Amino acid sequence: MSIDFQAWTNSHLSRFESVLGDLLPSPDVAPQRLHQAMRYAVLQGGKRVRPLLAFAAAELVGAELSRAHIAAASVELIHAYSLVHDDMPCMDDDVLRRGKPTCHVQYDEPTALLVGDSLQTLAFQLLADHKLNDEGARQLEMIKLLAQASGSRGMAGGQAIDLDSVGKSLTVPELEFMHIHKTGALIRAAILLGAHCGAVTTEQLAKLDHYGKCVGLAFQVVDDVLDTEADTATLGKTAGKDADHDKPTYVTLLGVQAARSMANQLHQDALESLAGFGEAGQRLRELADFIVLRKY
Ligand code: GRG
User: Fold this and answer.
1) Which of 6-15, 194-203, 241-250 is least confident?
2) Could you give the percent of the chain with pLDDT greater than 70?
3) What total of structural domains would you count in the chain?
4) Atom of ligand 1 nearest to the CA of 86
5) Whose CA is closest to 233, among 101, 62, 98, 61?
6) Are 186 and 156 a contacting pair, CB within 8 Å?
7) Which residue's C-alpha comes closest to atom 24 of ligand 1?
8) 1 has a pLDDT exceeding 80
9) 223: Cβ below 6 Å to ligand 1?
10) Which domain range does residue 98 map to?
11) I need a labelling partner for 275 at 20 to 30 A (CA). Which of 9, 34, 129, 244 fits?
């Protein structure tokens, strides 16, 4: 990671942390316990890959940072909700997330359920409350985009297929379908929402969408590899869970070597889709590098 990219990341993320803190309900406003748990699930945690992708896409089209903050926050709240629900006993039943006890362990199951519900609705409230584009129609498009990416034809649908696939053997296209929905859809949405905060053209959107599809899938392929290769302390979540839960992954289907090659191919495809952007696409290039080369 170049020093320049590291500095860009750090500066965006420290500002974004305080933006998130302001957008979330205050911990001393009733119902306090729910609001505290929402903040626990969102603040000071995670790599913030989706917000960084939104910032990079927004910068590419010269969008105002304050608008990109809202777009990025809406995606990160949906992501945080999905992690809280995914960790619950009725789904993956995990006790560790982002290096700390999962939300239902720290609080309780009903609270965790409501945290997820409330983060999800807050995400859409943000998109409706703040002016994100001078054209109202485009802003409506953004709301629709996030709804599709997170609903049954996006992330939640992918999760349903994932739950159904336990103990089964999927084909590579079936696995790809599942991951494009479960993980890829929200990553793709983060990039498009960032771009929609500025004057993005249809041609630029098509390139960014292809980039998003590639890095979204690459993210999951790398996640599958890390689940087998990295340790729990490095990941901040329980390692080796896919095998424990008898889940089909790129590693079980293809082996580590072929899974790594697939991630490398997706990485190349992602970079190619940015070719026409010149220097302006540099942050997205660096983020693609990070997604594929990360160790956690
Ligand atoms: C419950 C509707 C619903 C959906 C859950 C995203 C998801 C679907 C479940 C999360 C479990 C999981 C391990 C998904 C695979 C990859 C993934 C999305 C990992 C977590 O994302 P990171 O690594 O997490 O960006 P951080 O903590 O860094 O934000």
Assistant:
1) 241-250
2) 100
3) 1
4) 1
5) 98
6) no
7) 46
8) no
9) yes
10) 5-293
11) 9
